[in-house]
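Here is an idea for our session: we take a single protein and study its fold together. Which protein we use is up to you, so please pick one and set it down. Once you have written the record down, we can walk along the chain together:
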Amino acid sequence: MIKLNAKNSLIIVLSTLAISLILFFPKIYLANNIYYISKDINKLYANYISLKEENRFLQQQLEDMKFKNQIIDSLLINSLENK
């Protein structure tokens, strides 16, 4: 049996602390990495959503410009034919 004096108690406590750190450090490290990666994913997803919305808006503007261009072309052609 181990005699519990100050030196042996300190060795037992420090070895228990070292074993605990060795066992729990990977879990803490992975949990932190998962947290920061999920933050990055959420930021990228927010950017993706805003870019998707902007793309939809730009496509609508393009469609409007094409429509106006077709109308102006048809008016020009009709005015040239009438002259």
The chain has a mean pLDDT of 91. The radius of gyration is 35 Å.
